Amino acid sequence: MMGATCVAALCAPAQAQVAPPFATLLRQTADAPRRIESEAEVRRYEGLARQARARPNPTIGVLTENVAGSSPYRGVDRAETTLQYSQPLEIGGKRSARIAAGEAGVAASRARDHDAKIRYAYDLARAYAAADVADQRIMLVEGEVEQAQNILRAARVLVDAGKEARLRALQAEAALNAVTADLEGTKADRIAAYARLSALAGVDETFTGLSESLLTVPVAAPAYGPVDPMTSSSFLAAQAEREAAERRLTAEQKRAIPDVTAIVGVRRLDYENATALTAGVSIPLNIFDRNRGNIAASEAEAQAAAARLAMARNDAIAEARAAGAQIAAAQSRVAAAEASQRTAEETYRLARIAYEAGKSPLVELLNARQGLGAARGIVLDAKVASFEARAQLARLQGRTLSGGEIQ
């Protein structure tokens, strides 16, 4: 029992470092920094929208006149005290324009948040796949190291038997050293890939392994359908931002209209022992500040938002057209690369048999080993390209790799 407890205690941290399946990891990263930032922006615009509905505050003032002057106003007998209430009145649709701008800002922030969620899922999938690729590249290079070691042993056997010159053993040893150096570089790339995945997921402890491989996860059947570029999250976000910019421009134009302030007061006349009402209206003169700078800035912002919308539309159309073709091409590329790998494996097998039998030179075996390693690398690259195409299609459709829609 004590031994089992110790084993469980030692294995628990290692298991905690293994990244869960991608769908689970995506659900668990709701508090990742990128997700929190995007959601905080939505709350910020919701607060601004609530503030846009607020009306101007009234002003209450007390004014005393005809006191502490020269005779007959030396004392306070002739004092006139006025209690005044002032209320600014927004005219010209200023408040409604401000409210519309606030609501459009909230809609734009929500569209950006939805686009950010989709892009985060896409980036997280790519980081997850990059860690998977790093693992598989290590396996490939380790296989090349093992093959190079076998070639070196075979070369030394032939050298000892006097059937090969010592130079051949040195050549085989040099080839082994080269692939061993590649292995060390591949291990460093793996550490970097897992560090990026952990940082993107917002976890404190770096992952050391994966629970599944995304390179072989198929896209759900509905996700293979045509992509409507006008429904992509990036286009909808740009469209909402243009609408918000136009609403802000209207609000700034309305701000140039002067406000009217209504004034109502009660005046106490001490000398006459009487009370009187006062009323008035004040209107500012737009002589110096006509809000022209803010209007010009809003016009430029609206033009920039329209340009971004046009670019987003063009990008969405291009990506939608390319999505289906890229998936079909990637699948054909994988099939062709796997066929080439099978040929390279057979070539290496025959070259090794021939060399060990003394019927072919070492250089042919080394070339066959290099060709096999290159073929395996091409297969892995083809699978990565296929994954990239599937991930891009899922991003355009606002879905995860498994076909679930991102809310």
UniProtKB/TrEMBL annotation:
Keyword Amino-acid biosynthesis (UniProt): no
Alphabetized Gene3D superfamilies for the sequence: Outer membrane efflux proteins (OEP)
Pfam families noted in UniProt: OEP
InterPro entries in the record: MdtP/NodT-like (IPR010131), OMP_efflux (IPR003423)
Keyword list, A-Z: Coiled coil, Signal
UniProt keyword annotation of Manganese present: no
GO molecular function per UniProt: efflux transmembrane transporter activity
Signal peptide: 1-16
Coiled-coil regions listed: 295-347
Tree of life domain: Bacteria
Family membership noted in the UniProt record: Belongs to the outer membrane factor (OMF) (TC 1.B.17) family.
Protein name per its UniProtKB record: Metal transporter
